[in-house]
Prior knowledge:
Blueprint: H1 2-22, E1 27-32, E2 39-48, E3 51-59, E4 85-92, E5 98-105, E6 110-119, E7 122-132, E8 135-143
Amino acid sequence: MTKLISVLITSIALLFFSNANAQNVFGKWKTIDDRTGNPKGVIDIYKKEGKMFGKVVEILEKGKKDAICTKCEGDLKDEPVLGMVIIKAAEKHEDGEWKGKHLFDPEQAMIFRCKIWLNPDNPNELKVRGYLAFIYRTQTWIRVKD
């Protein structure tokens, strides 16, 4: 009987920890263009000093694998999009959302304020919203399975 209880407790613990891990914003996410529905790239979202950052680790669009930021100004002018950090220093809020002042779109060469959260109905979908004044756009990014 104690062996059965031990197996049951272990199973419940494994289920709890696997669900907790699946409900994490960190990892690789495939970006989906909200206008066309086509995949654009893969962003690695990671934590550094308690804040969220996101880096372009793969470009999926045909003919754009070697894209450079021609519209960018300053240090990013004519730099490769691959390897670019597009989310900088977003902070976690009590509601589970991450908010920040730096979500960079290399195609438009624009920086937006952002809000990022997991879809409560599907932890394999990340909602990424960029704000410019009171106007916003939201994309759904899909978790990349290792």
